[in-house]
Amino acid sequence: MSPAGAPGTSGKDIEEITAPDFGAHSCLGLPMQETHSRSTNPDIYTIRRRARCTQEQFADALGIPANTVRSWEQRRKRPSGAARTLLRLIEQKPELLEALQTAAT
């Protein structure tokens, strides 16, 4: 039994178990090494500018206040884990932001 108590893992690292199943990609389709950079913040300014959005438009699409986007860009605040995941997805597939904007209206 693994340290986490999951039967059948025999202490194997989760990457050893999942990488072959996903062809070295996470279930989100991102290369495994990219999913490990969770401690680093995505460059929100660059992501937003590539999407050609104002801070207000970007915030509206994400359903957050524009001040939060400003704080992230100025590195006064750090996005939550869920927000970082969403930002990385938008970075990889900018068309997701358009889908979010459509859903928000």
Identify the CATH homologous superfamily of the largest domain. Answer: lambda repressor-like DNA-binding domains
Mean pLDDT over all positions:
76
Number of strands: 0
Helix content, binned percent: 55-70%
Number of helices: 7
Descriptive account of the structure:
This protein is an all-alpha fold and 105 residues long. The protein contains 7 helices and no strands. The chain has helices spanning 14-22, 32-35, 44-50, 55-62, 66-73, 81-92, 95-104. The longest helix has 12 residues, at 81-92. The protein is globular, with a radius of gyration of 17 Å. The model is unreliable at 17-22 and 32-38 (pLDDT under 50).
List descriptors.
globular; 434 Repressor (Amino-terminal Domain); 105 residues; mainly alpha; 0% strand
